[in-house]
Amino acid sequence: MKVGLFIPCYIDQFYPHVAIATLKLLESVGCEVDYPLQQTCCGQPMANSGFENLAGGCNENFVRNFSGYDYIVSPSGSCTLHIKDHLHATNESEATTIRSRMYELTEFLTDVVNVSSLNATFPYRVGLHQSCHGQRGLGLAQMTERMLPPFSKPVQLLNLVDGLELVQLDRRDECCGFGGTFCVTEEAVSAKMGKDRVADHLRHGVNYITGVDVSCLMHMEGILKRSNSNVQIKHIAEILTATV
């Protein structure tokens, strides 16, 4: 299968190692991966701020870059959800096709590739942050308020990693407070939510916090660094390709 790799701008600028880990992971499960060099922002920041009319250039560019692939995969739940729900362009037929072929990394590995084993080792206590866009928008995990049997696609993959001890949290699907532009317009509320989310992980003695959205992890990483914590963050792609 031919996969177009979409890397969100904050990963490209601040966490390029996550993009590299994603590429390695996709290639390790047999995908032919291509990275369109002219890709840019998906337009989510403008749309979330009420200016979707300003995201037209991003939409047109996305269609130009990602037409013709069997699948488009991204290591970001929020950007994936934005494309799946809001991508429109002059060539609406192609935009519709792209929306149907857009996948977040973990759902692609579990639902399309059907990964059942990984050559990965990560002997640490890990707490999983299940981001809101992925959980409630993409259905990557069950919501606790629904009182239905639990499932989690990220957990399914993490359980394939040798030596990893997945820690059970008190409030496993609580928002971290990042919320894109929310952390700018409601800074105090965002920071308090982030501190509460981090505290849950710290109470359970994790060595690492992981998740499918670098944006949420970046938010919590800032809180950890400001408190001089030894706990580190790692995107799930980094753990699924780890060998030590």
From TrEMBL:
Ranges of residues in domain Cysteine-rich: 3-84, 126-220
GO cellular component terms listed in the entry, alphabetical order: cytosol
TM ranges: none
Gene Ontology MF: a single term: oxidoreductase activity
Signal peptide (UniProt feature, chain positions): none
Protein name: (Fe-S)-binding protein
Organism: Spirosoma profusum
Lineage, opening ranks: Bacteria, Pseudomonadati, Bacteroidota, Cytophagia, Cytophagales
